[in-house]
Amino acid sequence: MQHLKPGGWFEHVEISVVPKSEDGSLAGTNLEKWGPLAIECGEKFGKSFTVAEDSRAFMEKAGFVNVEHKTFKWPIGPWPRDRKMKEIGAYNRVGWDEGINGWAMFLFTKYLGVRCLALVFEGGCIDAVSSGNRKRSKCCVPR
Fold first, then answer.
1. Sheet of 136-137: strands edge to edge?
2. Quick one: the chain helix, strand, coil %, rounded to 5?
3. 41: Cβ–Cβ under 8 A, 6 or more apart, which residues?
4. What is d(CA 48, CA 50) in angstroms, rounded to the nearest whole number?
5. Inside any domain, residue 142
6. What is the Cα 81 distance to its own chain's centre?
7. DSSP state of 90
8. How far apart are CA 5 and CA 67, in angstroms?
């Protein structure tokens, strides 16, 4: 806070690791399982993955006042009808496709005991390619 002037503004953006849907379409999918598993990994790793959900409280605890918290929709995939949201979703989908291994491989293998060669994000699902038999598995949940 020593570098901020009184009356100034600070903007902070975080992305939740917990995918959500307004219509319940994630219910029962691997994508629905992803958020709680990511949070569990963070807890076991000693880092919080709930920063998006907790950031308002963090800011207020640090002494910021008039804190505003806004949530924006950010689709995964080009399914929205709205042209702008469709484009955002298409780019976000690429981020998931190309990022899932980097986000999860270390944490899932070390802290959840998952044995995977690769994690694949396809059609709204996170799949695993097992290192044991090199066959695709629809479930990357160690339970």
1. 116-122, 125-130, 136-137
2. 40, 10, 50
3. 49, 104, 107, 108, 111, 112
4. 5
5. no
6. 23
7. H
8. 16
CA dihedral 131, 136, 137, 140 (to 10 degrees): 50
Exposed e or buried b for every residue in 99-134, given b needs 16+ CB within 10 A?
Answer: ebbebbeebbeebbebebeebebeebbbbbeeeeee
The SS3 call for residue 129 is strand
User: Can you say whether the dihedral through the CA atoms of 88, 105, 23, 55 is positive or negative?
Assistant: negative
User: Could you tell me if residue 16 is inside a domain?
Assistant: no
Contact 71, 14 (CB under 8 A): no
pLDDT tens string 78-137: 888 999 999 998 998 888 878 877 888 888 888 888 776 555 555 545 555 444 433 333
Q: Does a structural domain hold residue 87?
A: yes
Structural domain span for residue 68: 30-115
**What integer pLDDT is reported at residue 102 of this predicted model?**
81
Domain count, the chain: 1
Residue at 2 is within a domain: no
pLDDT digits (tens, 9 = 90+) for 48-78: 999 999 999 999 999 889 999 998 888 888 8
